[in-house]
Structure formats: structure tokens, C-alpha cells
Design brief:
Blueprint (H helix, E strand, L loop, with lengths): L1 H7 L4 H26 L20 H23 L1 E4 L7 E2 L1 H18 L11 H8 L7 H14 L6 E4 L2 E4 L9 H29 L1
Parallel strand pairs: 1-3
Antiparallel strand pairs: 1-2, 3-4
Keywords: Membrane, Transmembrane, Transmembrane helix
Length: 209
């Protein structure tokens, strides 16, 4: 675990992205498979009260509805990223934003494994569920999760409340600085989130039309 913490808190942005991606794939598909076998179908369906909103018949408006709804998850990640923790033996602080991100991925894995989508047809076999995840031309999930991943990694060093054992120090928000690479990855993550909203919005209005 200390090795993973070291990689996720690395000063190298590429290293943070690589190990986040590896852990994401293991967690998401592992959770999908396990929940498929041990949890009932529709386990999380309609369990999220925030999903109770009326969708627009206008595709453009619907896309922005979905985008801003999905950005709520990014807000949670950003708020978590304002906190950093490390052990005395560690060099860098580990962003709490990773915890928020991986909890979202864990939930997404359960949703896929139990076929708990709010708008979905009859459940399909496990292998088909996994394969469909990579249909990025018609499925928004991977776009959105990768967008969240890139955003999480890009802001992994913005913490202003830093805890080292029992010692906690703070720094000012204006002291936060992102490198050029981090800014580019952050913008790419937001673009991915928008791409996911576009694909999902078109898919929903196609179903409802």
C-alpha cells in the first residue's frame, strides 16, 4: 500500500496518471464482476436522490444538464483534493481527492455489475457489460471516468490542509500552483466530461424519441 501511495502522490504527473489508471481498471472491473455475482440485479437503481430531475427534450439543453450534474462529482474530488495526508516517512502528501475518485469508481462498478442504470433495457450478460464499456462512440461511462481520473491526477498537489501524523499545517489557496502539464491534463479531463455528456445526452433523447 505504501508503494501505491508513493506513486499516487508522485511529483511526476505521468506516474500519477499511470498508476491511477492501473488501480482504476482493477477496482472498476473487479467490483463489476464481484457485484454481478453477489448482489441482486438493480441493487442501486434509483437509490440516488440527485438523479430525480426532469430531462429536457432539447438535446443541447440535456447535454448541459448532464454535464453540470456530472461535474458535481468533480466538485467532490476538488474539495477532497484540498486535504493532503502523509506519514512521517513519506515525502509527498497524498491527496484525499483520490479517495473521492475511487469511491465513485467503486460505486460505478456496482452499478454496472448489478445493472442499476436509471435508464436501461433488459440486463445483458457480464461479458457484454464489460465489452460495452469500451464502446466509446455510444457509451459515456469511460469518457466520464477517465475525465474524473485526469482531473484527480492533475490537482493531486493542491492541498491547503496538510496532515503529517498528528501535525496539521495550512497554506493559502493563492499559493496553489499548477504546472503547465497539470493545466493541460485538467482541461483534457473537463473535455472528456463534456464528451461523455454529449454521448449520453444523444443516447437518452434517442431512447425517448
Amino acid at each position: 500500500m505504501s508503494y501505491i501511495r508513493k506513486k499516487l502522490s508522485s511529483n511526476s504527473l505521468q506516474e500519477r496518471i499511470l498508476f491511477s489508471l492501473m488501480f482504476f481498471l482493477i477496482l472498476f472491473f473487479g467490483t463489476t464482476v464481484i457485484s454481478y455475482f453477489i448482489l441482486p440485479e438493480g441493487f442501486l437503481k434509483n437509490k440516488n436522490p440527485l438523479q430525480s430531475w426532469n430531462t429536457s427534450n432539447n438535446t443541447l439543453i440535456l447535454i448541459f444538464q448532464i454535464f453540470f450534474y456530472n461535474m458535481l462529482s468533480v466538485l467532490v474530488i476538488v474539495l477532497g483534493s484540498l486535504f493532503g495526508q502523509k506519514k512521517e516517512s513519506e515525502t509527498n502528501y497524498l491527496s484525499v481527492g483520490y479517495l473521492a475518485f475511487f469511491m465513485l469508481i467503486f460505486q460505478n462498478g456496482i452499478v454496472l455489475g448489478t445493472w442499476s442504470f436509471s435508464m436501461a433495457g433488459p440486463a445483458v450478460p457480464l461479458l457484454d457489460r464489460i465489452i460495452r464499456t469500451f464502446d466509446i462512440a455510444h457509451k459515456a461511462g469511460l469518457w466520464e471516468m477517465m475525465g474524473q481520473l485526469l482531473i484527480t491526477c492533475s490537482i493531486a498537489h493542491i492541498a491547503v490542509i496538510l496532515t503529517n501524523g498528528k501535525k496539521t499545517v495550512t497554506r493559502k489557496v493563492r499559493d496553489i500552483r499548477l504546472t503547465k502539464g497539470e493545466k493541460m491534463v485538467l482541461m483534457t479531463g473537463i473535455v472528456f466530461m463534456l464528451a461523455g455528456a454529449i454521448i449520453e445526452g444523444i443516447a437518452i433523447n434517442t431512447i425517448l424519441s
